[in-house]
Amino acid sequence: MDFADDRSRSTSPSSRGGGDSAGRGAANGAGGRSQGCILFVGNLPFQAPWQNIKDQFRKAGKVRYTDLIADRTGRPKGSALVTMSTPEGAQRAIQIFNETEFEGRRLIVRSFDDGPRPQLVSRENMPTYARFRGSDGGPRGNDSRQQHQQRGAQSKPQPPQQRQQAPPQAKPKMAAHTESDVPRPRSQQSNEDQRKLFISNLPFDCTAMALKTTFEQVGEVARTEIIVGRNGKSRGMGIVVMTTADLAQIAIDEFDKIEMAGRPMNVRLDNKQQ
């Protein structure tokens, strides 16, 4: 179900940036209108524009503002503040979107506690927004026309000589196997519920070995794993299995919100099978 958008406050040239709220006075709301309506959304793709995030959360209710949070350099940090029109809409958004995938990443959605607002992304550092999108979610425009022309050229019949000279298609390369790919016996798979940790907001160049070295500082690690997408690249998430449940809890206490390469890790027990 798609709810109508609140267009009464659009971005003006004099606004501070960060999203579609016209300054912090608007985000705070008049007379406490935003009480219980503001959500923190974490583990977002860095290249996601605020318009895409707002369109996603409109499925839960009317969205007033969407602001991208900046890191120390002023660039997108991979998180945002989303202000719903009502507290009910905010709670519905948490139920719908928390722990769900958005553009290849698993979202973290929770209520934003009252307090100072974080630094927001300025206009010049905003991710590019493609207003018109094709059925595959990609931008429509010159790129799509070029793709159409290429498809048309490929569909034309080639003379026999050209078909014979066409180079053979390269076979896809097989992904390299890691230690986590090796099947484990059932005796080693049991009782991981209280020992298995889900780590998000990792640097994309983080390896399973680096993850293991990090968590071995608090205790023995049974195994680690980097979660990858269909393209074989890291999704910025990983799995760490400690040898005991007590060590798993210690790891949560020690590493949750601790930065790795400038990115604060989110560490918790893994409640879902990967």
Descriptors:
274 residues; alpha+beta; Alpha-Beta Plaits; 2 domains; 4-stranded antiparallel sheet
Question: How would you describe this protein?
Answer:
By secondary structure, this protein is of the alpha+beta class. The protein folds into two domains: 24-125, RRM (RNA recognition motif) domain (Alpha-Beta Plaits); 179-269, Alpha-Beta Plaits (2-Layer Sandwich). Helices cover 24% and strands 22% of the residues. The chain is built from eight helices and twelve strands. It has helices at residues 24-28, 50-57, 87-97, 142-155, 160-165, 186-189, 208-215, 245-255; strands at residues 38-42, 63-70, 76-84, 101-102, 105-106, 108-111, 196-200, 221-228, 234-242, 259-260, 263-264, 266-269. A four-stranded antiparallel beta sheet has the order 2-3-1-6. Strands 8-9-7-12 form a four-stranded antiparallel beta sheet. Strands 4-5 form a two-stranded antiparallel ribbon. A hairpin with a 5-residue loop joins strand 2 and strand 3. The longest helix has 14 residues, at 142-155. The chain is globular, with a radius of gyration of 23 Å. The chain starts with 23 loop residues before the first helix and ends in a 5-residue tail after the last strand. Residues 4-16, 22-31 and 132-146 have low confidence and may be disordered.
Q: How would you briefly describe this protein structure?
A:
This protein is an alpha+beta fold and 274 residues long.
Largest beta sheet, briefly? 4 strands, antiparallel
Distance between the first and last residues' Cα = 28 Å
Overall average residue pLDDT: 77
- At the first level of CATH, the class of the largest domain is Alpha Beta
Query: What is the count of structural domains?
Result: 2
Proportion in helices: 10-25%
> Strand order across the biggest sheet?
2-3-1-6
Structural class: alpha+beta
Per CATH, which architecture of the largest domain? 2-Layer Sandwich
Order of helices and strands: HEHEEHEEEHHHEHEEHEEE
Topology, number of strands: 12
What is the assigned CATH homologous superfamily of the largest domain? RRM (RNA recognition motif) domain
Taken as a percent bin, the fraction of beta residues is 15-25%
CATH fold group of the largest domain: Alpha-Beta Plaits
- Give the overall silhouette: globular
